[in-house]
Design brief:
Order of helices and strands: HHHHH
Keywords: Amino-acid transport, Cell membrane, Membrane, Transmembrane, Transmembrane helix, Transport
Number of strands: 0
Protein name: Branched-chain amino acid transport system carrier protein
Radius of gyration: 17 Å
Largest sheet: none
Membrane topology: Multi-pass membrane protein
Subcellular location: Cell inner membrane; Cell membrane
Number of helices: 5
Function: Component of the transport system for branched-chain amino acids.
Strand content: under 5%
Structural class: mainly alpha
Number of domains: 2
Amino acid sequence: MLGLGFMTFAFYLGAGNIIFPPLAGFLAGEHLSFAMLGFLVTAVGLPLITIIAVAKAGDGWAGMTRLLPAGVATTLAVAIYIIIGPAFAAPRTGLVAYEMGLKPFLG
């Protein structure tokens, strides 16, 4: 249960989800409603759909991919791990640290 709580917290409050939305809203100007909709769909809707899909599958990854061939399920898992880890989350985490901790001092 503790792991599920931490996972849910990280889904919604990951790297930059507290920092970048106000900036995106500010930069959107008169298109604020589109910026809010985009943020709600990508930062709230997709994690919520993921949590619901995992819960409905009942057996985690095996339950979600039981109708797929084993090779496709493995390829999908590898692609997800690469996209979430080194291709997306790690650079974004580094970017947030740079933007908030180093860039203000560099001018």
